[in-house]
Amino acid sequence: MLKRWSLPIMLVYVIALTYGSLGNVSGVPKLGFSFDDKIYHFLAYAILTLILFNFITTTTVKHKMALSASIAVIYGIIIEVLQSTLTDFRTPDYYDVVANTLGVVFAIVLLRFSYKLKLK
Q: What pTM, to 2 d.p., does this model score?
C-alpha cells in the first residue's frame, strides 16, 4: 500500500521541503546547539532520500539507490542556489550542502544495511 502512495508522498514532501528551504522559517524550534540548522538539513535530506528511493522502487529504473542519492544531492544544491537568487532573507551556505549530503549518505547506508538484513 505504501508503494501506491509513494508519488503523492514524495510530491508533498518535496513541496514542503522547498517551502521550508525558501520561506521564512524563523519559528522553527531551537535544539540548543549552534548547528541546529545543520541537524535539520541532515534529517530532511535523509528523509528525502528514503522517500525518493521508495518512489523509484515502483519504477523499472536501475541503480535505484544511486539515482535517489543523486537526485537528493542535486536538489539540495539547487535549493542553496535559489536561496541566493530568490530570497532576501535566506543565504546559501556550503555547510548546508555538506549537511544535506551527509544526510543522503546516512540514508543510503541505512538502505544498504536493511538490504543486507533481508538477504540473510
A: 0.87
